[in-house]
């Protein structure tokens, strides 16, 4: 099985007259003259053969994209065919390995579409000698029993080439308008008034008004094209690489404009759709006498995976120019990683080596998404990336979703919340940002008061894994020496977190972090982090996850004296559940136990009625009320997986308040707060079945509003 296949692409040879390579202003000088186009073509092909021979290259086929003739010049088809065979017969090139399609100069001007006289010159050479030619209107049966002559297929079927005829309406003469039909033929005689020369001139001018050079592909040909593709043998390994050859262009290869009627293929969108549905990987054309090599995208039902066609526009021999006379086209990476490579060949000068450009390649691997394949979102603007990630999570729930953030601003600092992140009523942007930073810092605490009853915090697992290993320090020591693929940290301990039956297990969604030290400039490095999540909610959790990864990334970059790089999240279970912030947030009073225990005491003073009008007391009360509302909203959410039930902070607050409040245990606020602690504790110790959750949610719905009503800010109006 060959991994490569090489082809020579020729087009628009126009083998009539002289090729004006040089500007000869003194034609009287003897033996100084430009070559004929036939001679120049022969020299070009001979030089290409020498080039191939010298490098021990093989040649699978020669592709000719039309216009051997120049305005119907006789003998040009035979000259083109014979030049190809003479130059490359030692490479095994015969009629069966030449693919040819007619151009607009190869048809008889004024002949009816689909007529024998239209294709007489083309068919007498390329078709009759046994070359691979397109199905031709009027010459071939509408339902051919055998389509072999319309395709060239590799011995192992790894590639196949299909010519198409776009010239059936080229050089066609339109019908005379009905309102002029009765006088049209008489106009030259009447206008010339006996002047025979003028009469012929008028007749020719009127004829030009009816002449159109239109590119169009008939419905019959498109049907046969599909049949030909369907009849093609398939390879035993990999996908078949299909090439279509036509004379006219799918898109103009440059900004140069040709102002004329029917400048392009009239039924282009139909053709593009046929190429898409037949999975054509590349289209080769001539006509414009210009080189270009690029992708063309055809829309499909899946907007994320349009069909991609590599388009090869071939140049040719032109007056006053040596460049882009021919192309070498190579298919590489067969059968599983196909790509198409193009080398541009210049017209040679005597005694000089043939100039062949460095190859330029495009991959031919399809863009179509395999069902269930990972969905990838990437970008450099966090607001835009968040919006797109949320959109993908909505439409790909339960699937693998990879989000890659390559920030345009690599300055160190915490990530900002996306502008579209859900916010509680009355909360300022500054308060939300402070909340985010406090939250991710709590998740990264080495020890927490909730470690015993809430097995999700990440800090102890990263910095005190198994009670002794600081994985962050280990990563730093590894990367201080050199980049290492072993720079990873795990947050799941099978001995601690797993049981034999997989029941009643509780461990973080954040399961692993990979760190990459990447050299960006000489002796300059960036730190990339990749977070892996067994499940990830995107409406509210993903920005928190990203902020936590940025915190870890910044810590590592500081230790390693490196820049901040990219952040990537990978989850195998994308979720979208726009629940209340309480399900994302660690309740503020539980965080205060670990981060600011003095705030709990000040909150108890404030709740007991010791309101001194201090600004910080107003802030404490706002956070208290907001957290209570978050708990109430989260308790009624459809899914409360991973929800941190308020416990230690409420217990500490209850202890302070029962001692400070003048009514002690008789205080209504103390009693309701104790009921809340007991309800949370009962649910926390349950198996958290639906009945348990329903009972807890009902208790929260009753208790929390009562506590809020007794809060000083509400009592005072």
TrEMBL record:
Coiled coil start-end: none
Protein name: Calcineurin-like phosphoesterase domain-containing protein
Domain of life: Bacteria
GO MF annotations, alphabetized: hydrolase activity
SUPFAM superfamilies cross-referenced by the UniProt entry: Metallo-dependent phosphatases (SSF56300), Thymidylate synthase/dCMP hydroxymethylase (SSF55831)
Organism expressing this protein natively: Neorhizobium lilium
Domain Calcineurin-like phosphoesterase per the UniProt entry, residue ranges: 6-290
InterPro entries xref list: Calcineurin-like_PHP, Metallo-depent_PP-like, Thymidate_synth/dCMP_Mease_sf
